[in-house]
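General statements about sequence and structure are easier to judge against a single worked case. No coordinates are needed to read the tokens, only the vocabulary itself. The sequence in question and its structure tokens are set out directly beneath this paragraph.
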Amino acid sequence: MQTKPKLMRRKSAKSVITKTCEKCSAEVNLHLVSTTPENLYRGKCEACGDQAQVTEGKSQSRKVIGYLRVSTQDQDLEKNKADILTFANERKLGHVTWVEEKVSGVKTWKKRELAKAVDSLTPGDWLIVPELSRLGRSTLDILDVLSVLREGGVNVYAIKGAWTLNGTIEAKVFVTMMALFAEIERDLISARTKEALKARKASGVRLGRPKGPGKSKLDQFRPEIEGLLKNGATQRFIAKRYGCSETNLNNWLRKNKIDRTPVL
């Protein structure tokens, strides 16, 4: 009688593993919560409350971007780089990819290299900056960047002030305060604008669009158009010749009080 070969049992996963907290470097016990398709461990640091998870049997590759922006060509980036590398090494974050640009703060973040960096980050990745002011030209701009990063599950750290944006309650309070500051800034901008307009009006400056026909691309062809009208050319022919609609031509003729009567 032929015996069946014994089947090798799959080695069971450990129910608990220990990991170093990325935020405070304390030891965290992670508990097995799933074995499909990989062993997934989750836990909470008792020291700082930071949430952590590890997938066993799968390389943990995360992106860490160090973003550096200066407004003038003579500013040195080396000190900022050193500070960012020190933080990344202390937290054992791994390799830092640098994104550097020298642009004016007046340029919105969505039109800078920062936007490409933000788009490349995924949940669990890191964006490290020397200070939050490097992210935008105003509180509104900075809040916009932080909101996008928070929705994407990206960790943000600013060296100056040691600001951290992640899933903790402190980070949520910080973002709420930023939103409050942004609202105050909007109100201040609105108030300053109204006050400036009121002062200009009081000084006799006429506000709004200036009266008159305004500039038109047909102005430079006025002698030719008047000659064509006198020779009996139709408005359709003239409009097609100078690349405009008959309506625009008619409005231009009326505003400039041009005689349309042909000379017989």
User: Anything to note?
Assistant: Residues 16-56 form a domain with the N-terminal domain of TfIIb fold (CATH 2.20.25.420). The two ends are 123 Å apart (CA to CA). The chain has a mean pLDDT of 78. The longest strand covers residues 27-34.
